[in-house]
Write a structure and sequence with these properties.
Chain lengths: 375, 433
Amino acid sequence: MPGIIDAHSHIGLDVVNEATDPNTSNVFVGDAINPFSVSIYRALAGGVTASHAMHGSANAVGGQCETIKHRFGVTDPDDMKMDGAPRTIKFALGENPMRVHGEGNGIVPRTRMGVEQIFRQGFAKAKDYMAEWDAYNANPSGAKAPPTYDLKMETMADILRGDIIIHCHSYRADEILMLLDVLGDYGVKKICFQHVNEGFKVAPELAEYGAGASVFADWWAYKFEVYYSTAYNATILTRNNVTTSINSDSGELIRHLYHEAAKTQRYGDLTDNEALKLITLNPAIQLGINHRVGSLEVGKEGDVAIFNNHPLSIYAVPQMTIVDGVVRFDINSDPDDMRIDVDPEAKISSFIDFHSGAEEDRCMQDVFEYFNDRK
Amino acid sequence: MMIKYIYIFSLLLIANSIAGQQVTKSTYGDVLLKNATVHTVTDGTLNNTDVFIKDGLIADIGNNLSAGRNVTTVDCSGKHIYPGFIDSDTRLALSEVSAVSLTNDFNEIGDLIPHMQALTAVNPNATAIPVTRVNGVTSVIVAPTGGIFPGTASLIDLIGYTPEQMDAGFRGVIMNFPSSARRGRRDSRSDEDIKKAQDKATKKIDEVWDELALYHKIDSAATGNSKAHIKYQPEMDALLPVYRGEFPLMINVSKDKDIEAAINWVTKKGVKAIFIGVSEGYRVADKIAEAGIPVIAGPVLSVPGRAEARYDVAYANPGIMAKAGVKVAIRTGDSENVRNLPFNAGFAATYGMGKEEALKAITINPAEMFGVADKYGSISKGKVANLFVSTGDPFEMKTRLTHLFIKGWNVPIESRHTLLYNEFLKRSPGLED
C-alpha cells in the first residue's frame, strides 16, 4: 500500500509548545526537529512514511508546523523536511488554551468567547498590517518610513493570503462552528480540523465549507470536552462527504495507524478502500501533498509500505517501509543498533514505566514543565 | 424505530448529567442459540452446535437441542460463539472523565491502604460500561492505583444496577512493587532520588510483612476467644487474607531487575502472587516461569520502555512469556477504552502468541488466576452464561457482535457511541431544513 501519512504527530520534535502567548504564529517547530528520535523508526516500522510534525495546543494560534518524511538515518534535521510541502500552522480551541492562559496566566482566553477574539484580533491586526505595507510598497522611495516588520503579523497575513493551511485542534461542535464563522468573515478557505471529536454533529457544515477533519479512531472521555464522542465519528464524517483522516497525536498510536483505520469497519461500515484512504490519500490532501504522495501512482514519490497480510487485518505485520525509494525499515534487517541507548552513564537504566505515571497527550508537552519551572 | 431512538436520546440528554448513560434494557429468559461454531476455549471448536442458556447459566451444549416452551431460538448459522472476555486490570467505572479529578475514584491518599475497596467506587451507570461490553468484554478487574498498597481489587460483571449485583466474587490486594524505573517521560528525579525512593519502599514492605505476621498470630489466638478484642487496624485486616493465602497479592512490576526482586520477595515471604504489567517480562521469562507466578501482561499496544528495545517488544512480550511456560492473562489497564481488549489480544496473537493462547489470555487463564474457572472463562455446561455471538473472529476489527449475554441477560448491542451514530449519521434537520 502507499506509505501511511499521519496528519497529526509530534514525533521527532525536541519541543512541542511555546506556551508563552495565546498567539505564537512567529515560531516554527521545524527549528526543533530531532532526526535521532527512535519514535521515527518505530513509526517507520508501522508503515508510516510521512507525518505532520505539529506545534502543540497550548495557544489559540500556535506555531507553524513541518511536514516531515521519515528518512530515519539522516543526521541533518533539515533532511527530514519534505521540501516544497505547503506551510501549515496550528490553531487550538477549547480547554487547552483556556487552562494554559486563562486559568494558568490569568489572561484571555479563559472561555470559548475569549478564544474567538484571539483569532479576530489576529486577523484584524494583520489586515491593518498588510494595508500599511501595501501603502508603503506603493511608494517605497517616498518620505514615509517602512512599517515595523512583525513576524506574527506576517504569518497571520500569509494565512489571509491563502498561503498557509490551518490545522486546528478542536473538540466541540460549537467551537468548530465558531472558527468557521471567523474564517468565513476573513475569507480563509484552507482549514483542516484536528481531533474534532464532535465533528460528527456538524458534518454537513464542515462539508459545505470544504473543511477537512483529522480524527482519532476511538479516543474519548479523557477530558470533559470529549465526553460526548463516538467512535463512529470517522464514518459519519466520511458519509457526509468531509475529507477525513485518522491521526495518532501519539508515539504509540502512530505505530499502528493501519489498525486505527480498520476500526472504522467495527464502528461504521467503511469499505477497505475508504478505510485505507483515511491514512493515505486523505491526510495527503489535508497537508496539500496529494499530488506527490498518498497513493500508488506512476510519477508519485516512492513511499511504500509492505505488509504480510491485508493491512486492515489484525494479523497484518509491516514487513518493509520505503521512503523516496530508500528502504528505511525492513523486518528482516532490523539490527539492534537502530536503537541507541542515549545515556550510557546513567546509574538508573533507561527503562521508563509508562503505565505508572500520568502521561499527558503530547499536544500539551512542555506546558507543565513551563509551569513547574516558573513557580 | 427512529422515533424510539429520538425518544431514548432525549431522555439521555436529560439523564446524563445525573446518572450517566442508560441504554435499552436487557432481557432475561431461556435462549437457544442454534447451529453456531462454538469456540469453547477448553474443549476445542465445535461446528454446527447449539448452546442453551437457562437461568443465567449455560445449561447445555450439543447438536439438535430442542427448544421447550418459552424459549427464544436464535439461528446462529454461519456465526461464532465465544466466551465473554475478561480484562484482568482496569479502571473501568472507577473513572468517568480522567482529566476531571473529582470523577476519578481509584487513587486514594496513603501508601498503606489495602482496605480501600474498588468495588465501593464502581459506578454501575458509567457511560463506558456499555461501550466496553459491546466489544465482547463481559467481566473486568477493577483495581485501585498509587502508593504501595493502594487497595483491594474486585472482579465484576458488566451488568447490574448495584456494585453488589456486579460482584463476581474475586478479591485481590494490589501492591506496587518498589520500582527503580522512571514514572513516565516527565519524571525528572535524579538517579539517586529514584534509588532512595526504591530503598525506602523496600524497607516499608518488609516492615508491613513483619507486622502482618504478628497480627496473624494475635488474630489466630483471639479467634474463638469471646473476651479478646483487637484494636481497629483496617490495613492489617485487609492484608490478612493475603497472608493466609486466601486472596492473591496482585503486584504491579515492570522492569527486569524489579521483576527479579519481586520474585525473590514473593518466594521468601511465601506469598501467593499475580504479577501485573511486567513489560520487561521478555527479559526474565524463564525466571517467572520457574517461580510459577502467573502474569497479567499489557497493555500490548504500548511503546517499549526503553529507547533501545526492539520496536515490537510490547507486542511480543505476552507470547514470549507464554512460550517460556508462564500463565499469561492480558489487560488494557484502561478505563474508557477497555473495549480494545480483543485488539490487544489480537496483536499479541500476531506477534508470536498465536490465536489460541491469546484467546485463553482473555478467557480461561484469568478465570483460573482468579479462582473462578468453575464459573467463567469457557463455553462449558454449568458455567455462567457470559458469552457473545459474532460474525467471525472477534480479534478482527471487521467482525461484528450480533448477540451478547451476561449472566444470562440478553444485552443490547448498544452504547452512547451507537446512539450518537444513529442520531447523527444522517442529521435531520440537515443543512437545508
